[in-house]
Amino acid sequence: MPVTSNFQLAIAAIILLIAALSVALWFRYVLKKSTLSQPVFTPSGRSFFGQLNMAVRSHCVVFPSIPVRLLIRAKVLTRGGFLLSKLKNDVFDYVICDRETMDVKCLIILSNKSRKTAKKADEFVQLCRYAGLTLLAYEEKPYRNIPALRKQIFTACSIKEPKICDNGKFECTATAHPESILS
């Protein structure tokens, strides 16, 4: 074999080895640089989600972090349209929907005591007023009274709770027929 063909084979082998190492390094390091940028919930947001879920799960479903642009539509040259263009990249912290129909019952935002959040909360209130949606705002804190939270949300969403009788059972609206009761 001539020297030039061995030299060409060696060059081709080196190029192939470099390409294989490049692909291996790319899969090892470049693909693994994608990580979760932030947790889904802050600790106080996770705490509120759990308490909210316990408070309303009998009648409603709670969805966290739903973008404003998915829930509200507005014409461009209206006040609602102006607010929507300002808030379209924001999210409602929690959306409460009816368990059976999945209709939106109310929206919840969590706020802290900063001025920027207070101004944004006012814009959320105005946008929801224009859209005809109920908006509730709560401060971020780790503990809430769950029965009081339930009562506030059910009142805001116009949900009637079943009454509890003296014996601790829920009040029945339908009467049972004697032949349908198992002994």
Describe it for me?
By secondary structure, the protein is of the alpha+beta class. Helix content is 45%, strand content 16%. The chain contains 6 helices and 4 strands; from the N terminus they run ααβααββαβα. Strands 1-2-3-4 form a 4-stranded mixed β-sheet, with helices on both faces. Strand 2 and strand 3 form a beta hairpin. Helix 2 (43-56) packs across helix 6 and helix 4 (79-87) packs across helix 5.
Offer a few descriptive terms.
6 helices, 16% strand, single chain, 183 residues, 45% helix
Compile the SSE list and pairings:
Layout: H1 3-30, H2 43-56, E1 60-67, H3 68-71, H4 79-87, E2 91-98, E3 104-111, H5 115-131, E4 135-139, H6 146-156
Parallel strand pairs: 3-4
Antiparallel strand pairs: 1-2, 2-3
Helix pairs in contact: 2-6, 4-5
Write a concise synopsis of the structure shown.
This protein has 183 residues and is of the alpha+beta class.
Question: Which strand-content bin applies to the residues?
Answer: 15-25%
* Class by alpha and beta content: alpha+beta
Overall 3D geometry?
elongated
Mean pLDDT: 80
- Uncertain stretches of 5 or more adjacent residues: 172-183
- Number of helical regions: 6
Query: Sheet bearing the most strands, described?
Result: 4 strands, mixed
- Please compute the radius of gyration using only Cα atoms: 29 Å
Biggest β-sheet: strands ordered side by side in the sheet: 1-2-3-4
Question: What's the helix-strand series?
Answer: HHEHHEEHEH
| Count of strand segments | 4
What's the helical proportion of residues?
40-55%
What gap, in angstroms, lies between the N and C termini?
A: 98 Å
